[in-house]
Design a protein that fits this description.
With about 200 residues, this protein is an alpha+beta fold. It is built from nine helices and eight strands. A four-stranded antiparallel beta sheet has the order 1-8-3-6. A four-stranded antiparallel beta sheet has the order 2-7-4-5. The protein is globular and about 55 Å long.
Amino acid sequence: MMESGTDNHFNAILQHIERRISLNEEEQRCIHSAFSIRSLLPRQYLLVQGEVCRHESYVCHGFLRSFHVDSRGDEHTLHFAQEDWWISDLNSFIRQVPASRNIIALEKTVVLQIDMEKREELLLRVPKMERFWRILNEHASMAQDQRILNNISLSGVQRYQALLKKYPDIEQRLPQKHIASFLGMTPVFLSQIRKELAKK
């Protein structure tokens, strides 16, 4: 018999999926068998840049950061993921080529993972999962487009305020230097923005 904590993690992903498609009991069992559970400690890597991404990961608990290290050794925060989100290097996962990013846990984290073989098998056994992943990828694409537009059209202050509005607890979970990197600004500039807003 599985531990209740593990049950809770699998219940979380089933609820996540069923908000987008309906599942019967047999389909739920297929999904359950397709995923494996993994725990990470703070500062432990889920993926290392240059390695092939072998899994798509659903975050049950915790917080992760995705970042690229350039040729000068500078880090560029690309994404972050909290509870009920997915994270991977999709290009690396789908094409099985070296990853362009690192993914690291910032807190104690638990993820449910599916590899390419299990994913393809699941799509054969539960064809409606094609629709689930299509919906997921459409939403991710729209969010990325909005982020690009925000970077073009909004001031630094507006981008920071929009981030706080969308993710109110982000400053408690993501260090300021990584927030600055995500917003495309220096930590010094972000600090100035925060000081100006605090005066108002």
